[in-house]
UniProtKB/TrEMBL annotation:
GO terms for molecular function: tRNA-2-methylthio-N(6)-dimethylallyladenosine(37) synthase activity. Catalyzes the methylthiolation of N6-(dimethylallyl)adenosine (i(6)A), leading to the formation of 2-methylthio-N6-(dimethylallyl)adenosine (ms(2)i(6)A) at position 37 in tRNAs that read codons beginning with uridine. CDD domains: Radical_SAM. This is tRNA-2-methylthio-N(6)-dimethylallyladenosine synthase. Residues 419-481 form the TRAM domain. Monomer. It comes from Blautia ammoniilytica.
Length: 484
């Protein structure tokens, strides 16, 4: 894990070291020197703005980039009128890309007023060759572009960017390297994501992730447990284990470990209170895991189990490797083992060839499964995926109509399912104070948000809260007693 870097011990006059972590510390030191001079000339700190699109893996990687920026001496600010603007991009759906292009237009204007401004793009979208071509041709004012595999080289790339006038692009096809011990700036002091694996091998036919994140690689369980231990030592009590398909964790390790075994090892860390994980693929959800969730003291009773579609025919075309019956059977099984489980899911509407009958099957699974929440997405064609070449793309108006019908069923069911907690007292981890002063927001183990009047000493603590009023996907409540 990361320890404070002592820059006085790094020789910045010699050649950069070969060891990857030390090498990056060396470049951080070099930039600190540059920055001290720059900041003296400006008579103020040099600022950066970092924005993250996409999923929790991107959030986690942004924490590393922020950690390196802070270590190098930059001051973070929220707005984009900063000296350096960094976007960590997502490409899972087309609108994620469009957002970035839209923002770049605005940044161009800002840069005209501040020619010393630097613009940096990285993350999933940059792993697509057509995107990089477009950035090269249409957005030459972007200073640095890198991908998902070489983030650990950020300090060195930054240094190179500072020493040239033209756009610097470095994209790797893939990597076996997992570089540990880089600085991280955590978004919360009391909860944290922990990567347990990288990449994805499933190739669902609509999905771009395996192309931009590379092949599945699991981290060694010891490295994961050590990271959790040092997070706990640093005040963290809730961890979210992250992977595109956590249920296949550990299969390719030299000494294979199952995900349930990993959970057991993480659970043994003293001082840790809650364990969450994302995402579970139904095809790999094991009885061992279901059983473990039932008896664990720390694993939260919340399972995110993306169904994508309720139609067995569409699921086959999606290459999901389970069918409607198998999915419903899993829901039954998990409810049998963990009766108070909160289930959430992802659903795609308008996959190529989806008929009204297929769509009705999706509504049927939603009706039968009693999800607490479902994230609904309109199918987005991703070039390079098998589904992009499929005929019968569903007309826009039909998709829109289905999407609206699905959303109203999801909301109606969600409201009904969430109301089961009405009047109960639940333990919540208090996460933030809302804009309305004195009102705090916490999360139950079921991942349900609760707003309640409180005091700032409650932040980061577990408090007993009575859930008074169900507002659909969240509650208004009252703190009952303070615990811990
Ligand atoms: N690894 C996770 C999902 C990661 S992407 C899993 O398999 O569950 C998050 C969600 O985005 C997916 O569950 C899917 O519902 C949605 N998604 C992925 N590709 C999409 C596409 N091309 N169009 C619309 N939604 C998509
Ligand atoms: Fe995409 Fe499927 Fe991998 Fe999830 S499991 S990231 S949906 S290919
Ligand atoms: Fe997006 Fe990449 Fe995550 S494409 S959803 S940020 S893995």
């Amino acid at each position: 894990m990361f320890n404070e870097i002592d820059f006085t011990k790094i020789d910045l006059t010699g050649q950069p070291p070969a060891d990857e972590t030390k090498r990056q510390y060396y470049f951080m030191g070099k930039i600190r020197e540059l920055l001290a001079r720059e900041s003296a000339v400006l008579g103020r700190p040099v600022t950066y703005c970092l924005q993250t699109f996409g999923c929790q893996m991107n959030e986690k990687q942004s924490e590393v980039v922020a950690g390196i920026m802070d270590e190098m001496g930059f001051d973070r600010k929220e707005s984009e009128d900063a000296d350096i603007v960094i976007y960590n991009t997502c490409t899972v759906r087309e609108n994620a890309n469009l957002k970035v292009y839209g923002r770049l237009g605005k940044l161009h204007n800002l840069k005209k007023h501040n020619p010393d401004m630097k613009i940096i793009l990285f993350g999933c979208m940059m792993q697509e060759p057509h995107v990089v071509d477009k950035i090269r041709n249409d957005y030459p004012f972007v200073d640095l572009v890198f991908g998902t595999h070489n983030i650990f080289r950020f300090a060195e790339l930054f240094y190179e960017m500072k020493n040239r006038d033209s756009q610097l692009v470095e994209i790797w096809e893939g990597t076996e390297q997992i570089v540990e011990e880089l600085p991280t700036e955590r978004n919360y002091s009391f909860k944290s994501g922990v990567n347990i694996m990288f990449g994805c091998n499933n190739f669902c036919s609509y999905c771009i992730v395996p192309y931009v994140r590379g092949r599945e690689r699991s981290r060694e369980p010891e490295a994961i447990v050590n990271e959790v231990k040092s997070l706990v030592a640093d005040g963290v009590t809730e961890v979210m284990l992250l992977g595109q398909n956590v249920n296949s964790y550990g299969k390719t390790l030299e000494h294979p470990v199952t995900f349930a075994q990993l959970l057991q090892m993480v659970e043994a860390v003293p001082g840790l209170h809650r364990i969450r994980f994302m995402t579970s693929h139904p095809k790999d959800l094991s009885d061992e895991l279901i059983e473990y969730m039932g008896k664990s003291k720390k694993v939260c009773h919340h399972l995110h189990l993306p169904m994508q579609s309720g139609s067995s025919r569409i699921l086959k075309l999606m290459n999901r490797r389970y069918d409607k019956e198998k999915y419903l059977e899993l829901v039954q099984k998990i409810r049998g083992a963990v009766p108070d489980i909160s289930l959430t899911t992802d659903i795609i509407v308008g996959f190529p060839g989806e008929t009204e009958e297929d769509f009705l099957e999706t509504l049927d699974v939603v009706d039968k499964s009693n999800f607490d929440t479902a994230f609904t997405f309109i199918y987005s064609k991703r070039s390079g995926t098998p589904a992009a070449k499929m005929e019968d793309q569903v007309p826009e108006d039909v998709v829109k109509d289905r999407f609206d019908r699905l959303l109203s069923l999801v909301q109606e069911k969600g409201r009904m399912v969430s109301s089961r907690f009405q009047g109960t007292v639940q333990e919540v981890l208090v996460e933030t104070e809302s804009k309305e002063k004195g009102i705090f927001t916490g999360r139950t183990q079921y991942n349900l948000l609760v707003h309640f009047p409180g005091t700032s000493d409650m932040l980061g603590k577990y408090i007993q809260v009575r859930l008074d009023t169900c507002k659909g996907f969240y509650y208004l409540g009252t703190a009952v007693t303070e615990q811990e």
